[in-house]
Design a protein that fits this description.
The protein has 14 helices and twelve strands. Strand 2 and strand 3 form a beta hairpin. The strands form four sheets. Strands 2, 3, 4 and 8 form a four-stranded antiparallel beta sheet that branches. Strands 5-6-7 form a three-stranded antiparallel beta sheet, with no helix packed on it. It folds into three domains: about 210 residues, no CATH class; about 50 residues, no CATH class; about 60 residues, no CATH class. Helix 3 crosses helix 5 and helix 3 crosses helix 10.
């Protein structure tokens, strides 16, 4: 065989191959351009990906769990009769926290999101007999249960594609296992609905490529470290006359036994004494190899790297700007868009239930369910430290004093701004020169935290 023929028999094999992760392929060019394409992840596959990679589960779950931090308060326009507390008690009976968590997580992993569907007992029959009909709230007898239905069990259609029509972009109906359900009987939780594709863009779809790249990078680094590491065993060299097949079989048995007890991709044996050591290549900068991927993943998900990487007891160790942005995202994307949407719908239904303590209170005081208005309040995601609280009070006091001196605002306006819990001065009452004790407050706070 001449040299040309020999070269033709050479076949390139890409050693960095992982069929399970889709990394590389035999004979492929490692510098080949990466093809970016939209990936549709649905149903069982979405659940499997979330379970299989802890980093994805943290990114999906952490903002939802942060949003559920602390107590949820329900305030009504009839709270002198304890309506808000009674409504909250009924929500707790229905397991509202689990419902909020499950529906929010589903909306972050499923392309069609999830629907929250109360199972109702209505006057004369169960709601299953009337699913296609508009819900008449006055017919509600009791909420039996609230189901969170993942996308595997439902599909939906849009009412109108005419941008000039009233029902443009609105969902007309949902089909649960083929059965038509009227929109008044459920609340749909979904991210970024595309009416033409009839699906949304969940967070999982946005972070999947970045998470896969990070997984590949970590796997590749591990392979490099293991492939360039060998365990060398030094053993007594057999004498020439005793250099038999049995001797080499004993050596092989020794090597095999050591391989089972040490983590290494390769083992070498050389004549000497029964000593062994690791020989490995030192790679510089591997600890920084995935930093840019964590930064990219943080940018895509809107979550600080301390959440993505995991930190002790879920505490944020990131900068104040990261904290502020993260908490703002939880407030807007999780609490308002998801939790409050579900809560407002359920609160409206429980107002019409019969036989509950809430209903009995309505009857006692002559309150009509349709007249009750609810406000939802969440516990703040972060509380100021004593130092931060003092600094804030100092700045607020300085601002108020400046605005009064410059006649930008009146003392009464500043009082209401600084102390909204206090009653405003009555008209005609003489206002002292320092009505709020600002001078004293400034003296106390000067020097706190290094401020002068």
């Amino acid at each position: 065989m001449n040299e040309t023929d020999a070269i033709q028999t050479i076949m390139r094999v890409n050693s960095l191959v992982s069929a399970s992760m889709g990394v590389g392929k035999d004979g492929s060019d490692p510098l080949e351009e990466l093809q970016i394409e939209e990936r549709l992840i649905q149903g069982h596959q979405a659940r499997q990906i979330r379970r299989s990679l802890d980093i994805i589960q943290r990114i999906i779950d952490s903002p939802v769990d942060a949003g559920l931090k602390g107590e949820i308060k329900i305030i009504s326009n009839y709270d002198e009769y304890g309506i808000g507390k009674l409504a909250l008690d009924r929500l707790k009976e229905l397991g509202i926290r689990d419902i909020l968590r499950e529906s929010a997580i589903d909306s972050r992993i499923y392309t069609r999101g999830s629907i929250v569907l109360p199972v109702l007992r209505e006057t004369g029959m169960y709601s299953r007999d009337r699913m296609k009909d508009e819900l008449q709230k006055n017919n509600i007898e009791r909420i039996e249960k609230i189901n969170v239905i993942p996308e595997d069990f439902f599909s939906f259609r849009v009412q109108n594609y005419d941008p000039l029509a009233r029902g443009f972009r609105e969902i007309e109906a949902v089909y649960v296992q083929g059965e038509l359900v009227h929109p008044s009987r459920f609340v749909h939780v979904i991210d970024d609905l595309d009416i033409f594709l009839l699906r949304g863009t969940p967070l999982l779809a946005r972070i999947y490529t970045a998470c896969k790249a990070l997984n590949i990078a970590q796997w590749t680094i591990t392979q490099l470290i293991l492939r360039y590491r060998a365990l060398v065993i030094k053993y007594p060299e057999p004498k020439a006359k005793q250099n038999t097949a049995k001797d080499w079989m004993d050596i092989k048995s020794l090597v095999d036994d050591i391989k089972r007890k040490f983590t290494s991709k390769s083992v070498a044996a050389v004549p000497s004494s029964f000593e062994f050591e690791y020989l490995q290549t030192q790679f510089q900068g591997l600890d920084q190899a995935t930093d840019f991927l964590f930064e990219y993943l943080s940018s895509v998900s809107g979550e600080p790297q301390s959440i993505i990487k995991g930190s002790a007891q879920g505490e944020l160790a990131s900068a104040k700007e990261d904290k502020r942005d993260y908490y703002a995202m939880v407030e807007a994307d999780v609490r308002e868009k998801k939790f409050s949407k579900v809560l407002r719908y359920i609160l409206e239904l429980i107002s019409f239930e019969k036989g509950t303590e809430l209903h009995e209170t309505f009857l006692k005081y002559g309150i009509r369910p349709g007249d009750v208005k609810y406000t939802i309040e969440y516990e703040p995601l972060s509380a100021l430290s004593p130092l931060e609280e003092s600094q804030k009070n100092l700045v607020d006091a300085q601002t108020a004093s400046l605005e009064i001196d410059k006649q930008i605002s009146s003392p009464r306006q500043m009082q209401q701004w600084l102390h909204p819990e206090r009653e405003a001065f009555e008209g005609g009452e003489v206002v002292p020169s320092d009505p709020f004790g600002m001078d004293e407050l400034l003296k106390k706070l000067s020097g706190v935290g290094g401020l002068n």
